[in-house]
Amino acid sequence: MIDPSDPPEVQIAKQARIIEALINRAERGHEVGGTAYSLFQSAITLQAKVWEKTKDLEKALDTLGRASSELEIAYQTQERMQRNLADAMVAMEGGFALFSEDRLQVCNTQFRRLLPDVEPLIKPGLAFDDYLRAVEVSKSLASEEDAGVKAVRRSPASGLPEAPGHGFSSFVIALRNDRWFQISCRQTTSGNIAVLQTEITDLVRENRREKDRLIDQQAHLLQAAFDHMSLGVCTFSSDGELLVHNERFSALLGLPLPLLKKGASFQRILEHIERHEIVDRKSRRPELARWFKALRRGETVQQHFRRRDGMRLDMRLHSLPDDGFIVSLMDVTAETEAAALLEQRVAERTAELTEANRQLQVHAAEQTKIEGALRLAKEAAESAHVSKTRFLAAASHDLLQPINAAKLYLSTLTETVEEGGAREVVNRLNRSFTSIETLLQALLDISRLDSSGAEFNITSFSIGNMLQGLSEDLAPLAAEKRIELRIVPSSRWVTSDQRYLMRSVQNLVVNAIQYTERGRVLVGCRLAGTRLRIEVWDTGIGISETDQARVFKEFTRGGGGKGTGMGLGLSIVERACRHLDHPVRLVSRPGVGSMFSIEVPLAAPGHVTVYENPVVEAAPTGDLDLIVMVVENDADELHAMTQKLEGWGASVLAAGSTLEAISLMQEIGTPPDIVLADYQLDEEDNGIETIRTLRALAGCEIPAIIISANRHRDFQAQADEMSFAVLTKPVQLVRLRALIDWKTRARVA
């Protein structure tokens, strides 16, 4: 009935009402009962309840006394803090004021007396904005001319805060007695505004003295620079009075020193030159009125003179910002003589050209010989281009060999490194080698397509399988850029080179992902008569009409050079589709997106002819409990492949040639479970001979995989004939692991 959280006076009032109700109840009980025992019993009950309520009242009074004591202590603490704050404000060197809820609460004497005409306004309750306006219009502030600075005005761009809640601001005011103060306004965490007035007069005066010293120093430096100039320089005020000159000016005109005193008239100097005939009489007379009018218009006046001794002088007058002007004199004797000599040489050269024109007619007869020589040079250039193409194609094995070894080592290192920083370095190396591999494959593809004997394997195949493989390969790249990649399935069959067509579509999709910042990339097929048009749509940056004509050239990237890569992807698409007679089309709008398409001939559905190795959706993760024979003539790649296979749990027989492989197989007395051999070994040795020899010795068909950069059609046909798989370098380890498992399981089956 009584809430302990209520104030003591409320609790006492409630208890009084309860006691009164109990007394009334006892009286009613006496009237109803009428017996002595009932009266006695009611009195006992009433007395017990009165005692209980009396104790509650005593507790409430005790609680009220303690609360009163604590309140008295709080009042004393507040008074002590206010006295400490007042003492601290008095002891401060600058002015200080505290505004709470945009109203002045407390300030010290220095703050109040800074501006005499503002002092009457500084009282508790003064609004913060009123204080700023009063400071702004105070008559104690120095004018712009007195202060030497531009006056501060209350505007959105000024340093004065418009209202509380702006964090921190500071501005400087100048008083008429050459005193300077910095006023800083800072908002506290509780929403109050603290204003601090700090005198910076000594700092301003010191800066002023330093400025004057620097000006004097610069004046000396300027005079020294004038004195060492090869030009004669002299400056005049707006009234034509001399200010500064150098010795070269007087030397070029032969003027006496008294005439070049500060304040001398420019007209007097010209009269002296004319009176003493310092310049030739044939020189143009000075026109001062015309000169001064041109200078006032901001133009440059130029005049040439010739001294009596033959020296040529070039005089130029330039206007200065303060309506003065500067006169420069230059000795142009050498230049004038050179010009005359040049004119003479021009005349001589004209005569020579006339003679040369006559001789050109004689050389016309030799033009036929020159054209013949040009044809020979063209044939030599074409031969060099063919040699270059053949060299790149032949060197693919040597180029891809170290990359393959490095990727094997990086794969092993990725599985062993656990430290975060080292793992990041390994990941960056993996990405770098992937970029190198991509660029190298692009260069090799271009070299193959540019060669006159480029080989193509034209077959009929389902376009749906190719698109599904593209979706699996490029989905991570699109996910990394947060681009929606959608590839519409198709059941159509086409006739083309499957590898080059897949590479071309892959390049188009990769380009679309790279040049799309947001949105999606859509790949689908559309019938076009007897052809199937493969279209790649994107919502990227688009390609301007100017860039559309050159994006298919090597090392060209659209969109102002954005994106990654070397700009070879579209060049490969253009070359491959030109050889395959597949029309390529581009439609694009800048800022909207692009559409690339490739048209290929339709084919009747049939049986799939597999020229590529089977793709397993996911490589097994268990240990390889196999004996693997690895034949590789490169020691680094052999070591890297051995480490990778042993990391997968396989027992590896490492050999550098066919003879070493035979020796190892005879030593263990049993054929290996699978053979991994490089195609190109030392001298006449190769991986195909290794497989043929080991199978002959074992008397059975050992599963085998050839790892090579060779992509010729004959090589693939031989692989089909001998039933071994082919992996191109650099090897994709996921595919290698899946292929090993597939080949060995097929043998067991």
TrEMBL record:
Modified sites of kind 4-aspartylphosphate: 678
Keywords: Kinase, Phosphoprotein, Transferase
SMART domains linked to this entry: HATPase_c, HisKA, REC
Histidine kinase domain segment(s): 394-604
GO CC aspect terms: plasma membrane
Top-rank taxon, per record: Bacteria
GO molecular function terms noted in the UniProt entry: histidine phosphotransfer kinase activity; phosphorelay sensor kinase activity
Signal peptide: none
Protein name from the UniProt record: histidine kinase
Record organism: Ciceribacter sichuanensis
